[in-house]
Structures are given as C-alpha cells and as structure tokens.
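Quick one, tokens below. Sequence please?
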C-alpha cells in the first residue's frame, strides 16, 4: 500500500504514471509490477525508512496479505499501519486485532517482543503462517505459534494462498508420541469467529495398546542404533539401577498430552519415575526431568504454558499416591511400596500382553 497524498492505494490497482509515497517516511516509492512477483511498492536503495529496513517480502507474503485483506474486511482494515509507540507495523489491522502473515523464519525472542509490543497497546495479535511453516507442522519452529482456546484446544492457523482460505488445525494433541489434530478451512473471518464460539464435535483422543507398543519399540530401536540422546536418557536410568526399556506400567496408562509436552512425554514420565527415591524433593524431580528432556516453556501466545507441565507432573504423582506407592511429606517423597521396573523390553511386553487393554 502507498499514499497518493489523498488515499491509500494498493499496488495491484496503482497506475503506472502516478506518483505514490510511503505513508511513514513520505518519500516517493517505486511501483513494481511484473509477471513473476505480486505487485508491490518499494523504497529507493539505501532508504532509512523503518519499512525499507525490514527484510524483503516474498511473493507469497505479498499475495497472502492482499488475500487476507478480503478475508477480513477490505473496507474497515488498515494495511501496514505503523504504530510509532512500539515501532511496529502489523500486516493488517482490524479493530483491535493485528493480523500477521508470517512466511519467513522468526526467533522465539523476536516473536515474543512483537507480541508484547501489541499487548502494551491492548492489541490482540493473530499470527497466520505460510506454506513453509505448514510443511514443518509439528517442529519447534512452528510450535511457538500455538494458541490455546477453551472451545477448540491448542490451535495453529495457516493461510492457503492457492485456495484463498485460512486453515485451522485445532484440538492438537500428542497421542502415543504422534501429533493428532482436526482441520477446517474458511474464506471469511466471520465464519472463523462463529466456529470458535460453536466448533461442533471435538474428538476425544485415546491411547491404545498398539500406540504404546509402538512407542516402546521406538525407544528400543533408538537404543539399539545408539541414538545419542536416547543413550543419555538410558544412562540416567542406569544410574538409578533401572532400564529405560523396562519402565513401570504407570508410565503407559495415559499417553495423550498437549503439544507443550509433545513427543517426549513418555521419556519425561520415565525420567520422573527414575528420580523418585526416599526423601527426594518433588521440586528437584520436576526440574530435573524438565531439564533432561529440554521441555520448552516459552509459548508467547499461550497463557502460563508452564502450568500444563505442572499439571502433568501432579497427575503422575497422584497416580503413585493413589496406588499406595508413595506419600508426600513437606514436599519430600516417602516410599511405601516398590515401584516395579522390568529387567528389559521383552519382560515388559509380556506384562503388557497379560494386562491387554485394561490399563487404558
């Protein structure tokens, strides 16, 4: 978008013989329109404008912004509105919501800074991801964009340029180490908002014997092929005279968890149980297991992400208390009955086969 000194004009409808100016630095812009990239305005070389100093926009980003403008509300949406109080320029502003179409890589720190900037002005931000993020769904680079919404759980938004629609991947959870989700698309913001208020059926995921066995088999294979990270966790168990492949059955009872715990959930539970001993402080057990698996707690768009980890820890400890394995006195563990570990992977398989699906 650029100014013709009276109105803001989109590059897609700009006239070749007209002069256009940057709405921030007021300098004349260059209209670029060809057969490859989407029409856009550019500053002259070495411009010191805050917009010009940002990374160049990809064709996907330029096209996506134009499409998102129609998706939201073309008449009442500001494009690239500069917010001088925080020195930020959201892609689109609609009422008190900043829409960011993120196609290029961004660090967690920079993402958090931008979100905090909007919050200072009491502006909510909706981050919508491009195609490269969609291809990497489930990776750490994408996970930092998770939202948590009461009605639909953990959710991430993608923009489908070819379809001109927003894709919502919601009810995201890990089941036996695999990422599960529901999916829906919309071509208007109003449809999305109505869905959030009334999403319909939310699938309730359940762990299964097959899923648990697959996870145990992956652990055994990683040890066999000398995976460095798995061997590190195995050594932690060895130091407590345990075998990671023979973890207690209680680790397998619940294998559905949030993206914050992720695919390391089972390993995390095993390390918690390997650290349970007489008089150990629960706080030390919690911090040790988190550190060993490298749980990420910085989710800028999720309120109090650490609480989800604490809740899983409390649930596991309560299972041990309920089964009369331990008591907690002043934050320290007292062992009532031995927590059963198996000698190896095969001994545990035999135990699981006799219990069948009753543990789930």
């Amino acid at each position: 978008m650029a100014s013709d000194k009276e109105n803001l004009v989109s590059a897609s409808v700009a006239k070749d013989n007209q002069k256009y100016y940057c709405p921030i630095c007021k300098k004349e812009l260059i209209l670029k329109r060809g057969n490859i990239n989407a029409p856009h305005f550019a500053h002259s070389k070495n411009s010191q404008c805050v917009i010009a100093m940002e990374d160049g926009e990809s064709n996907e980003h330029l096209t996506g912004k134009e499409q998102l403008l129609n998706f939201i509300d073309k008449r009442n949406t500001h494009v690239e509105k500069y917010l001088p109080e925080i020195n930020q320029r959201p892609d689109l502003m609609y009422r008190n919501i900043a829409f960011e179409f993120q196609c290029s890589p961004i660090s967690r720190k920079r993402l958090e800074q931008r979100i905090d900037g909007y919050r200072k002005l009491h502006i909510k931000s909706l981050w919508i991801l491009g195609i490269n993020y969609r291809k990497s769904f489930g990776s750490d680079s994408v996970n930092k964009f998770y939202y948590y919404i009461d009605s639909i759980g953990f959710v991430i938004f993608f923009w489908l340029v070819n379809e001109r629609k927003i894709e919502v991947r919601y009810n995201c959870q890990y089941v036996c180490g695999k990422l599960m989700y529901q999916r829906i698309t919309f071509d208007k913001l109003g449809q999305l908002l109505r869905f959030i208020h009334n999403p319909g059926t939310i699938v309730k995921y359940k762990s299964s014997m097959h899923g648990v066995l697959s996870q145990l088999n992956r652990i055994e294979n990683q040890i066999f092929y000398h995976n460095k990270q798995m061997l590190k966790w195995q050594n932690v168990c060895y130091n407590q005279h345990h075998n990671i492949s023979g973890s207690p059955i209680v680790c397998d009872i619940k294998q559905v968890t949030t993206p914050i715990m992720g695919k390391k959930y089972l390993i995390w539970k095993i390390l918690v149980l390997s650290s349970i001993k007489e008089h150990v402080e629960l706080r030390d057990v919690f911090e040790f297991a988190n550190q060993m698996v490298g749980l990420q707690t910085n989710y800028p768009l999720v309120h109090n992400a650490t609480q989800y980890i604490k809740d899983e820890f409390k649930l596991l400890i309560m299972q041990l208390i309920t089964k009369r394995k331990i008591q907690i006195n002043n934050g320290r563990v007292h062992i009532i009955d031995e927590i059963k570990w198996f000698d190896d992977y095969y001994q545990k398989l035999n135990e699981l086969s006799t219990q069948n699906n009753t543990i789930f």
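The two ends are 56 Å apart (CA to CA). The mean pLDDT is 92.
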